Amino acid sequence: MNLELNGMVAIVGGGSQGIGLGIATALAAEGARVVISARREADLIAAVERIKSETGGDVSYVAADCRQAADCKKVVAAAVERHGGLDILVNNDGAPPVGPLLGFDDIAWQKAVEQNLMYPIRMAREAVPHMRQRGGGSILNITAISAIQPIRELGLSVATWSGVIGFAKTLSLELGEFGINVNTICPGYIDTSRLRKVFASGNESSESVQDRLALEVPVRRIGTPEDIASLVALLVSPKGSYITGTAIQVDGGLLRGVR
């Protein structure tokens, strides 16, 4: 299927590794002009070279800290300056620390709010005027399955990403008339360094972690960044323009609730 992304301008947060890298690669392969952002410039340079090698696409980077309001402005401004506009915004980053919920002080909570909640809010605020000038666009937030099925000791993420889902749903109601759709993806167990950091027990190997967690998943495997990227590419494309206000789990059936 031709997703009609050729020539569109996309920003992908956390694009130097993991899910963000997978999304940036998928969009570039579909012909989008992609700008990736993350904090570490060396990782960004390596990611750009890898994506170009695999796709031949137009890919560039902006080193930025998504927790800083000024850096959110910088990323959008750089993309617009380079490409003349903006069509797609994918908000994706890491996650706050893990631990007992009541053990976190106000500073930890504030950092989590800045990283998980204020980041997509600020990016959307900067991006939407440019999308309206283009006659439409797409905003996609990456959270986690824990936002809709809480997991012990992931409370900082659960609370703040649940807020993102509420923000995105409300924003979809306000932006639909301008041709801008807003959606959220809630990945399950995905093969990233974060998965091993959160779920490894002691000196447990990466393979052991994956094998153990896969037994919890009905399809009996851990997901890949490509599993997420394929859906992202559809949702941010013209082919997905009638899908908005959703929070979709991509989890191999891990979510137990009926809704």
Nutshell version of this structure?
This protein is an alpha/beta fold.
Structure, described:
46% of the residues lie in helices and 15% in strands. The chain is α/β, with parallel strands linked by helices. It folds into 2 domains: 9-188 and 225-250, Rossmann fold (3-Layer(aba) Sandwich); 191-222, no CATH class. It has a 7-stranded parallel sheet, sandwiched between helices. β5, α5 (155-175) and β6 (180-187) form a beta-alpha-beta unit. α1 (18-29) packs parallel to α2, α1 crosses α8 (225-235) and α3 runs parallel beside α4 (106-134). The protein is globular.
Ordered list of secondary-structure elements with their pairings:
Layout: E1 9-13, H1 18-29, E2 33-38, H2 41-55, E3 59-63, H3 69-83, E4 88-91, H4 106-134, E5 137-142, H5 155-175, E6 180-187, H6 193-199, H7 206-214, H8 225-235, E7 247-250
Parallel strand pairs: 1-2, 1-4, 2-3, 4-5, 5-6, 6-7
